[in-house]
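Regression check, zinc ion case 361:
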Amino acid sequence: MTRILGIETSCDETAIGVVEDGTRILSSAIASSQHLHSLYGGVIPDIAGRIHVERIWQVLEEALDQAKCQPQDLDAIAVTYGPGLPGALLIGLAFAKGLALSLKRPLLGVDHLAAHLYAARMHNPELEPPYLGLIVSGGHTILCGVHTEFRFEVLGETKDDAIGEAFDKVARLLGLGYPGGPVIDRLSEEGERAAIPFPRATAKESYDFSFSGLKTAVYNHVRHLTKRVPISSAPHADEATASRRAEPRAAGQAWLDHRDIANIAASFQEAAVEMVVSKTLKACHRTGTHQLAIGGGVAANRRLRERLTEEASTRGIRVVCPPPSLCMDNGPMVAGWGFELLRKGRGAPLTLSIDPNLRLN
Ligand code: KG4
Ligand code: ZN
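Current build output:
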């Protein structure tokens, strides 16, 4: 029985978990600074770093308490060393090195993206390579082959914004705060998916993605609407509408009513989801793959999960969608991937540095 502590501080979550033998999650503790970034519409690296420093010890204690274990019960310390925000990564790595050194346990340097993909296996331990992996997060949109022994082969990635970034930027434009994905996901239920025919970028031959055209189309649509229908003359500008009025920085929000916002959210989400679903299924078809695993914060999106599952089932493809708690940044996924590294004897030296631009390999 091998117990690994996983530490994740690559962005705005301070997350630590304990995992036994790679898949049995004993604890998952998390402190988020998202509510602070929400004031600015995006992650402020200095704030993320300060909160990591302030909260990491408390998060460790909670993770050990939940797992009912003592530091001495741990067999190794796994930590995300990239990709991510440099200052945020440094705090997790320094903390992990301190623990590894004082407990005399191996240090394991974890690639955040490999960990996101490994979350699917933690949810479904029967999932064995080869399969196709889809990572959809705030910083990445990647389609990759997962080969035997968990070797990754990137097939395609975004050429501009990551899908989560597009959700966050559209939410900001609509004055919905940060992070935007969960709000757009919820609000889309109240809107019509076909209300606005936003464009779907399709580079037929490649597996690469592009979301900036869609984002610009949403921006132009909002500008168009706001010129035409100022709220003061809108026919149904009632209490509910007024309560959704803009904070000062949200372009045009003051002129959109709740129905407009819900329709834009639903139509944007539908376009973004369709782009990902069609590319992913094409990759499954062309590579002859019948297993698909998804990971990353946007993998929590209900419409994406629904559409992928629907389309995959008609083609005999099995989709493994981890629960939302394992899609978002979390400690257990770091410990899980750390277990694979330990098994392969791939411990890291105490001189390990962060790699903010680490590429999946
Ligand atoms: O994986 P993650 O927690 O952090 C990164 O590695 O980036 O992903 C965060 C991203 C944010 O952009 C957030 O808006 C998005 O995941 N997200 C969602 C949903 N929940 C989180 N996007 C769409 N629908 C959701 N339900
Ligand atoms: Zn992530």
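Comparison notes: Residues 112, 116, 137, 296-297, 329 surround zinc ion (ligand 2) (CB under 6 Å). DSSP finds twelve helices and ten strands in the chain. No diff flagged against the previous build.
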